[in-house]
Design brief:
By secondary structure, the protein is an alpha/beta fold. The protein has ten helices and 18 strands. Helix 3 packs across helix 4. The longest helix is centred in the middle third of the chain and has 21 residues.
Length: about 375
Amino acid sequence: MSTVRAAVLRAGGTPATVEPVGIAEPRAGEVRVRILGSGVCHSDLHVRDGEWPRPVPMAMGHEGAGVVEAVGPGVSLRVGQSVALSWLVPCGRCRSCRAGRPWACPDSPSFAHRLPDGTTALVGADGEPVMSYCGIGTMAEATVVPEAAAIALPEGVDPAVAALIGCCVSTGVGAVTKTAAVPAGATVAVIGLGGVGLSCVMGAVLAGAGRIVAIDRVPSKLDIARELGATDGLVATDDRAVTIEALRELTDGGPDFVFEAIGRVSTVELAIESLPIGGTAVLVGLTAFEARASFGVYPLVDGARRILGSNYGYADPAVDFPRYAALHLAGRLPIDRLIDRRIELGDLEGAFDRLRSGQGLRQVVVFE
C-alpha cells in the first residue's frame, strides 16, 4: 500500500485537512487514477459546511480527472489513458438503469462513498477507513474507483477541463440539451453564473436558442456569459418584482425556459414566478437538505407551466463525457473559459470562501 495526500473532512462545519492516507492497489474491475485536476464545486461546499451530512472521515472532491496508473484484472482501460471520473456509478439492476436512465439510479454504490463491495481504498494513519466522496474522492493525489467511474477521453484535453466535464459541464449543458431538450429558437434565461450556470449558457448556444439572458448579481460574470454566447445580461436586484419585469421586457413576456443554477430558495421562486404561459423552470442548483420553496399552484396549472428537476444533466457518462470533450476540442464548447483559478490542495478554504461570496467561476485543484 502506497501513500498519497488527500483533503480529508473529519467533521462537517470544519475545514478539511491535507493529510497522508494509504491507498490500496486496484483489485478486479478497479482502476487507480492519478488525479491531475479536481474542481471545487458548490456540492463540496455543502458537505464541508455540514449542510449535507456525510460519513467521515472522507476524502473530499467529486469532480476530477487524471490518468490511469494501475488496473486490476478484467479492466479494459490501459495504463496512461486520460480519464474523467463520474461521481455516479449506476447499479445496472434497478428499473432506471434497465430503462437507460443511469442518472436516476437510486441504488448507486456511489451514494455509500465506498467501493461497490463496501470497502474503502483509503486508510488513515491509524488504519481507520477513509471514505471517498461519491466513491471517487478526487481531492487526493490518487484514487481507486470501479472501472465504470473512469471514462476514457480523447487525447489533448486539459485535465482541468476534463475534471469539469465530470460534473459541472455535464450538469449544465445536459440540463439544457437533455433534461429540457430546448428547441432551436427558444428563449432561455439562466439564473446564477457559476460553473454550472455558464455551462447552461453554453448548452443553450449548442441548442440554438434564439435569445439567452444571463442573470447574476456580479456584473463581471455577465461579461463572461456574453463571451460564451449569451445575447443579454441582467443584473439581479433584491427586489424580485423588478428583476422579473426586466426579464419579461427582454424576452417578450417571459422566457420559454428558465434554468436556476444556484440552489437558493429565493432564486428557485424567482425562476418559477418569471415563467410565461407554457414556460418551463428547470431546477439545476441543489439547496441545503431542509430547504423548501413555494409557488402559486393556480397560475402553474392554469398557465400550463412546468417545473423540472435536473440531476447531473441526465448524464450517461460513458456516452456524454467523450461527446462533450470532442465538442470542446472542436471549439464548440469553450470549457476552459470557466476556469478562473488553478489552486493547490492546501488552498481549499480560500476557494470555499470565494464560493460562499458568489465571486469567481470555477476553481480547480491541480496536481503536478
